[in-house]
Amino acid sequence: MEEIMTTDHTKTPLSVPTPYYLLDESAIVANVQIIHRLCEQSGAKALLALKCFATWGVFDAMAPYLHGTTSSSLNEVRLGRETFGKHDDKETHAYSVAYSQDEIDEVLSYADKIIFNSISQLNAFKDKAKAQNIPVGLRLNPKTSNSSFVIADPARPFSRLGEHDKARIEAVLPDITGVMIHNNCENDDFDAFSASLADIEARFGDILAQLEWVSLGGGIHFIAPDYPVDKLAERLKTFSETYGVQVYLEPGEASIHGAGTLVTTVLDTMHNDKPLAVVDASIEAHMLDLLIYREAAPIEAINDEGLRLSPVADSDKSSESTIIYGRSCLAGDIFGEYTLPAALNIGDTIAFGNAAGYTMVKKNWFNGVNMPAIVIRRLDGSIDVQRQFNYDDYKASLS
Ligand SMILES: *Cc1c(COP(=O)(O)O)cnc(C)c1O
């Protein structure tokens, strides 16, 4: 542990070599406090979705505000049990698109509830769960969603994510006590959320009324500055009372949105019809979602100068705007294109914003590019270099 030199969260703890992910516990706590208030007002319980964010080094700071974790695999449910789940009052939910025969016993050994993705998985494993008194749920696919990306749309055509046929679901109601519905993706529109929930109620209300709990999944962007959290709380409370169910939320991105940066150094500058810069990290290896969703990273700081810089819109791209590239050999390894206050120089430090969710859980060793360290700014302002990676980690990831 090293003492921090400054309290401004955009500034670089100089003793750590780039690249590194810098997580800000105060910003994380600010997010989970909003979740906590939403839960207090609505009666809902919030479970951190580990698939978005599993950097357990900050879980002790988050745990007071959340009810536990939910998972999408054996490894995640185990991590949830070992971290949040070590506290008696926390819940560890298990879900997977498909469990295998040889892992189900271990999954059940960590789970307080288990949600099966299909009726066939339910039928295959429900007896094992019941033998251990573990409540069983089923994922419901309402065939409608609030997702602007087809690749992330659980209700996409021919989706495998959950059961949709009402008659078939009704037939297994004696086997389940709850359902999970996850059909939002970074949805910051309360009215759209509410309308889609109303649609689910209209079609599945009689089923919901026979259950004890309903998880509404993640993807509700209620941490946006102007989101009507009170209205959402009221909506969830009414929903819960109407059907007599415990509501769960499974926030991933909302828990850590805006609470981390990826800090990099400019290794080279070039010119090819526009100014170019290459930094010591890679979007393919370290911020993969930018590539998948064809988005660009915001900049939070250049050389300790905090400046919130959005990528330029396509229409504003010009021969003056700078493209910042990653160092992998993927031709399109691009962090973004920006109108910068000054030309970049070799050695400049650039912190990319919103780098906590869906980044560390997806990082990989493509090109053998050095993996960013994980650095945590604690609530008291001190800096922990939580984890550094080296050649041995790279080598051990292969054989
Ligand atoms: C991805 C996912 C979440 C978390 O989604 P966020 O958009 O990160 O909030 C929650 N539940 C399920 C079932 C998911 O697949």
From TrEMBL:
<keyword id="KW-0456">Lyase</keyword>
<keyword id="KW-0663">Pyridoxal phosphate</keyword>
<comment type="subunit">
    <text>Homodimer.</text>
</comment>
<feature type="domain" description="Orn/DAP/Arg decarboxylase 2 C-terminal">
    <location>
        <begin position="258"/>
        <end position="355"/>
    </location>
</feature>
<keyword id="KW-0745">Spermidine biosynthesis</keyword>
<dbReference type="InterPro" id="IPR029066">
    <property type="entry name" value="PLP-binding_barrel"/>
</dbReference>
<protein>
    <recommendedName>
        <fullName>Carboxynorspermidine/carboxyspermidine decarboxylase</fullName>
        <ecNumber>4.1.1.96</ecNumber>
    </recommendedName>
</protein>
<keyword id="KW-0210">Decarboxylase</keyword>
<comment type="function">
    <text>Catalyzes the decarboxylation of carboxynorspermidine and carboxyspermidine.</text>
</comment>
<dbReference type="Pfam" id="PF00278">
    <property type="entry name" value="Orn_DAP_Arg_deC"/>
</dbReference>
<dbReference type="InterPro" id="IPR005730">
    <property type="entry name" value="Nsp_de-COase"/>
</dbReference>
<comment type="similarity">
    <text>Belongs to the Orn/Lys/Arg decarboxylase class-II family. NspC subfamily.</text>
</comment>
<dbReference type="InterPro" id="IPR009006">
    <property type="entry name" value="Ala_racemase/Decarboxylase_C"/>
</dbReference>
<keyword id="KW-0620">Polyamine biosynthesis</keyword>
<keyword id="KW-0963">Cytoplasm</keyword>
<dbReference type="InterPro" id="IPR022643">
    <property type="entry name" value="De-COase2_C"/>
</dbReference>
